[in-house]
Design goal:
The complex is a heterodimer of chains A (833) and B (264). Helix content of chain A is 66%, strand content 3%. With 833 residues, chain A is mainly α. In chain A, helix 7 (232-267) runs antiparallel to helix 10 and helix 8 (274-287) packs antiparallel against helix 9 (303-331). In chain B, helix 2 (16-48) runs antiparallel to helix 3. The chains are: A mainly alpha (833), B alpha+beta (264). Bound molecules: protoporphyrin IX containing FE (HEM) and copper (II) ion (2 copies). One copper (II) ion binds at residues 245, 248, 291, 294-295 of chain A. Chain A: The chain crosses the membrane at residues 21-44, 64-88, 108-127, 147-171, 192-215, 235-256, 276-297, 309-331, 343-367, 379-400, 412-435, 455-474, 567-589, 609-626, 654-676, 696-716, 723-744, 771-794, 814-832.
Chain lengths: 833, 264
């Protein structure tokens, strides 16, 4: 399915893998979620109108607060920013598309369907009502029993899966497809901010994925991590904020990038202290992982750790100072044009200054003791986060002409800004004035009533101001004047060097910065070989031959056309959506009776809908995954590109490494959780649940399979089909053996020793059983995933694949080694000590 | 302001509120000043360098960037200024926090028993266990007696509280008294507060002061209504009340889990 239908056809939007199409899809979907979250916000504000009169029940109010937070942070802010990132990062670095276009489409569809799941959760007996921070143990079914609560958790899980794919994609693209001559330090600031963002996302979202998986396991399977008094609540706090603090920069950095671009474009000046700005951005990205406990100053963590966290928190505010001053000084001696985009970026800076100053208050522990859980925090983070979003709206005006080819209406834009800015401060500054109000409380101290009413009035105006923007965009799209290639006087970045909107493959010829500025060069493509650089007449330059790195020379791709369409991302996401929808109600709809032996095992199904959805979804997922693997989809790597520091690494392999890095974090979080719970329970009070012998056998089995995977690669390299079949077959057999031993081990635990998830016979505790089953279970799921891939590879090998191109075997090998290494850590933790 | 910066610890302090109020004042004053200076400077420059006459006039100094150039950034005097302002702001922020940290230690330790607070008998402070539940608070005293939703304490006494929870995560706090502690199942958090008898005298009946307790962590459908009172009474009245309460073994056990046998 290589042909891409025209933009007027609905099919185009279902099958497209082009980064610009997907950027538009992200932007529009995110704006939809802005409305969704906005309506919830207005509900909250109406409830706050009068502390004595309520429109919502306590439960409904909590649902509104929770969904508002989740939607704005996850389903609006980041995707809105990533709409622009999708559209403009490839353009700014001179690439044709992202590194993995199909994966990019998959990320988008996962995002969309996860949002749909969240929407559905409102109708599954009410959505989650535990706050966007989902503190434990309020987040377990005992306290939030609705099916919709599980639905919301699984929606978040699905969102995170999509984000992980997107992260890997951007990291690989930016590190692997920069145009010739564009070093990392030469990248435009928006791209820089996205690069820092995705690096943080790689690790932060892995932690969220892990904590989400554990929560899903508590909710769907019945494990008892977060209800455990052996540190369950604090475990959630640590894992959530380990993700949560980087997350606040993850949502802010793209906005910062937009500010950095717009300040330059509309002042006609170059960024002051560019190098230091970049260094600050990198510093912040690293430091963001070292401050999370400033959200937990009032918990039982000790004074030494609090002090450390206070120091790191203040430390992280310093690079932000530098960023703010760099923005301000860039304007000096400029020719500032107060266009709508600039107004929004400038307004964002002012809001951010206020948000930053109030953040420093929070960083001082004594003050935080009082501010914690009050509207001070709410006001602070709206100034910084929504302040950031303000810059993104500036970005929307700035790039609207490029994305649509039409100019927006400047007057309406300015009206929007003025109304927006005033009402913004009405809403959020009033929160500072009424800061003693506890968060998420509507029966507040009546002394604050009038202040909260100002906030509510402001909120309605703020909400309405967006309709000016929607009207402006809609009207301009239909009948606005043509924008031309470059409507701005002082723009610099490459997206302004092509038509508006840019053509499908972006460039007239290959973009190159080799001469120090953007040029489009024509390469000479010999028959049956990769392109070589050409002189002005189009003849090959013969100054010493082939400059391509090994991985470009080795694999034939230059005789194929790049693909731009695939339906499988859409279908695969839909399948996962169905599976998760099924799982959300699976637990209440079924009852498992383990009986005294396997023969007594039975399942009662009270309501067939959810189990059926689960099974259908699972089958569809496997089927679409298979079709995905079989599809002939080409996304050629850039031939001449800057790849520092990954010059020698092939594109997909680089992506694989990034993915594995995030998976390392996931297991890291699971293992930390196990250690944390055990430490809280008293380290020495636990003795291993499983016997050592089966564990030892399995260790040997897995390590042997690592060896057979290497044999597979050797066979593929030697083009020996039989050898490859044998080696892959052996790997499959060993993997299956591992699972069989594991199954036997679990069977004995359940039927002989009476240990299962939440019901542990002496001397084990329920939480210990949960930790053991869930952690080793996650590993087993990885083994099963690996086996499915192995079977797929076997099938393809049988039909003659991998004789020319051994890469898939190699990538599978990387994954398999990783799974084996994880076991090497799990074995001592669960079997020996 | 300068005096309050050097004034590390007020001699007449006896409550977290005093510490908070001073630090908050200092931060607010400095924060507002810095905020106004930075915002005003920014606005002024934006105004000064506005593109007043369109972009037609050629200008020797003005060297705008062009599409497709590799970014270089500006060095020169502005970069120096950047470091100067950065350095200044760093000094302000760091000294603020160091200053606030000194006072944190005071809050963590609590005032010396007996400094400003006159203690009665050999017990110098009262220890109360606070147990949060959906949706209210239980207060257990050393004799095992438990009150629900109303915490009764004497004036002029340092009240040490240990906060825990029997279901989900709550947060126990009284805004006016400026103290707060997480109420987490399986954990015990400690803090303290005190109310001087001067405050009792300022109340209407001149006898008792009441302070509102609220829950500061979302804990379920009744979170909004999860408030309670702290009633402060003169020491002798408290003694009288306390002597009338019945002791309870289970309560004693829980209390001892938090404070140790017989208290500190
Ligand atoms: C000057 C730098 C900053 C400092 C020192 C700072 C400090 C803090 C502290 C200590 C808290 C915890 C408050 C509490 O719950 O008691 C907090 C909360 C928060 N901050 Fe900041 N912050 C800064 C900048 C930012 C930025 C740039 C963002 C996002 C763009 C941000 C977003 C948030 C959010 C979302 C929360 C609240 C999360 C929640 O409880 O729901 N902060 N900040
Ligand atoms: Cu934080
Ligand atoms: Cu509460």
């Amino acid at each position: 399915m290589a042909e891409l239908p025209p933009t007027t056809s609905v099919r185009r939007w279902l099958v497209t893998t082009n980064h610009k199409d997907i950027g538009i899809l992200y932007t529009i979907t995110a704006l939809f979620f802005l409305l969704f979250g906005g309506v919830l916000a207005l509900l909250i504000r109406v409830q706050l109108w009068d502390p004595a009169n309520q429109v919502l029940s306590g439960l409904a109010y909590n649902e509104a607060v929770t969904a508002h937070g989740l939607i704005m942070v996850f389903w609006f802010l980041s995707p809105f920013a990533f709409g622009f990132a999708n559209y403009f990062v490839p353009l700014q670095i001179g690439a044709d598309d992202l590194a993995f276009p199909r994966l990019n489409a998959l990320s988008y569809w996962m995002y969309l369907f996860s949002g749909v799941l969240l929407g559905i959760s409102f109708f599954q007996g009410g959505t989650l009502d535990a706050g966007w921070t989902m503190y434990a143990p309020l987040n377990v079914p005992m306290y939030t029993p609705s099916i919709g609560s599980t639905g919301a958790v699984l929606a978040l899980f699905m969102f995170v899966v999509g984000v992980t794919a997107s992260t890997v994609n951007f990291l690989t693209s930016i590190h692997h497809s920069r145009a010739e001559g564009m070093g990392l330090m030469d990248m435009p600031m928006f791209t820089w901010s996205i690069l820092a963002t995705v690096w943080m996302m790689l690790f932060a979202f892995a932690a969220l994925l892990a904590v989400g998986l554990i929560l899903a396991s508590d909710r769907v399977l019945g494990s008892v991590y977060f209800s455990a008094t052996e540190g369950g609540s604090l475990l959630w706090g640590h894992l959530f904020w380990f993700f949560g603090h980087p997350e606040v920069y993850i949502v802010f950095f793209p906005a910062l990038g937009v500010m950095l671009e717009l300040f330059q474009t509309f002042s006609g000046r170059r960024l002051v202290g560019r190098k230091w700005v970049i260094i600050s951005i990198c510093l912040i990205s690293v430091q963001s992982f070292l401050v999370w406990m400033h959200h937990m100053f009032l918990t039982t963590i000790n004074l030494e750790i609090k002090t450390l966290m206070m120091a790191t928190t203040i430390g992280i505010s310093l690079p932000f100072d530098l960023l703010v001053f760099a923005l301000i000084y860039t304007l000096i001696k400029g020719r500032i044009q107060f266009t709508t985009p600039f107004l929004f970026a400038f307004g964002a800076l002012l809001l951010f200054i206020l948000g930053g100053i109030t953040g420093v208050f929070l960083g001082a522990i004594v003050l935080d003791y009082e501010f914690r859980g009050t509207y001070w925090v709410v006001a602070h983070f709206h100034y910084v986060m929504f302040g950031g979003a303000t810059a993104l709206f500036g970005g929307a005006y700035y790039w609207f002409p490029k994305m649509t080819g039409k100019m927006y209406d400047e007057f309406l834009g300015k009206v929007h800004f003025v109304v927006f800015f005033i009402s913004f401060n009405m809403v959020y500054f009033s929160m500072f004035l009424a800061w003693e109000t506890p968060r998420r409380v509507f029966e507040y101290n009546p002394a604050f009533t009038s202040i909260h009413q100002v906030g509510t009035v402001g909120a309605f105006i703020l909400g309405l101001s967006f309709f000016i923007m929607f009207y402006n965009f809609a009207k301009s799209y239909v009948s606005g004047p043509d924008a031309g290639e470059n409507p701005w006087d002082y723009s610099r970045t490459a997206e302004w060097a092509v038509s508006s909107p840019p053509p499908l493959e972006n460039w007239p010829n290959r973009p190159s910065y080799a001469s120090g500025k953007l040029e489009f060069v024509k390469d000479y493509v010999p028959d049956g070989g990769p392109a070589v650089k050409a002189d002005e007449d189009g003849n090959a330059v013969t100054d010493g031959g082939d400059h391509h790195p090994d991985h470009i020379r080795k694999y034939p791709y230059w005789d194929k056309h790049a693909s731009h369409a695939s339906i499988w991302p859409f279908l695969l996401s839909a399948a996962l959506g169905v599976l998760l929808l099924g799982l959300s109600g699976f637990n209440p709809a079924t009852e498992f009776h383990f009986g005294s032996s396997l023969a007594d095992f039975s399942i009662d199904i009270m309501n067939p809908i959810y189990p059926v959805l689960t099974v259908v979804g699972l089958l569809a997922l496997i089927w679409t995954g298979w079709k995905w693997g079989m599809e002939d989809f080409y996304a050629p790597p850039s031939e001449f590109a800057e790849r520092w520091p990954f010059e020698g690494v092939e594109k997909v392999k680089l992506g694989m490494w990034f993915f594995l890095a995030s998976d390392v974090m996931v297991f890291g979080a699971f293992i930390s959780a196990a250690v944390f719970i055990r430490w809280n329970a008293g380290w020495g009070t636990w003795t291993p649940i499983p016997d050592q012998l089966p564990g030892l056998i399995n260790t040997v089995v897995l390590l042997t399979s690592s060896f057979t995977v290497i044999l597979a690669l050797v066979a593929s390299h030697r083009k020996s089909r039989k050898g490859l079949l044998a080696a892959l077959g052996a790997t499959t057999v060993l993997g299956t053996t591992f699972l069989a031993v594991k199954a036997w081990e679990w069977w004995t635990k359940i039927y002989v020793d009476g240990v299962f998830l939440s019901t542990a016979a002496e001397p084990y505790s329920a939480v210990q059983a949960s930790v053991y089953f869930v952690t080793t279970g996650l590993h087993a799921v990885h083994v099963i995933g690996g086996l499915l891939i192995a079977v797929f590879l076997l099938y393809r090998t049988y039909h003659g694949a991998y004789m020319e191109d051994e890469r898939p075997v190699e990538f599978f090998g990387l994954y398999w080694h990783f799974v084996d290494i994880v076991w090497v850590f799990l074995f001592p933790l669960f079997y020996l000590f | 302001m300068i005096t309050s910066l050097t004034l590390q610890q007020g001699a007449d302090w006896d409550a977290q509120a005093d510490v908070f109020n001073e630090i908050f004042f200092v931060f607010l004053a400095l924060g507002t000043a810095i905020g106004i200076i930075v915002v005003a400077y920014t606005l002024w420059n934006a105004y000064k360098y506005r593109d007043a006459d369109g972009n037609g006039t050629p200008d020797e100094d003005f060297d705008p960037p062009v599409v497709g150039e590799l970014p270089t950034g500006q060095g020169g005097p502005k970069a120096k200024k950047l470091f100067l302002s950065f350095g200044l702001s760093a000094i302000v922020v760091i000294s603020l926090v160091v200053y606030a940290y000194g006072l944190l230690l005071y809050v963590e330790e609590g005032p010396d028993a007996g400094s400003q607070i006159e203690m009665e008998g050999d017990e110098d402070n009262l220890e109360v266990l606070v147990d949060g539940f959906q949706f209210g608070w239980d207060y257990t005293y050393a004799n095992g007696h438990t009150e629900t939703n109303e915490m009764i304490v004497p004036a002029d006494t340092r009240i040490d509280i240990a906060v825990t929870s029997s279901d989900v995560w709550h947060n126990f706090g009284a805004s006016e008294l400026r103290f707060k502690a997480d109420s987490i199942p399986g954990e015990t958090a400690y803090t303290w507060f005190s109310v001087s008898s001067d405050e009792l005298e300022q109340t209407e009946d001149g006898e008792r002061a009441e302070f509102m307790v609220e829950c500061f962590e979302l804990c379920g459908s009744g979170h909004s209504q999860m408030d309670g009172t702290i009633t402060v009474m003169p020491q002798d009245e408290f003694e009288e009340w306390y002597d009338d309460t019945e002791s309870d073994d289970e309560g004693v056990e829980e209390w001892e889990d938090a404070f140790g046998e017989g208290g500190e």
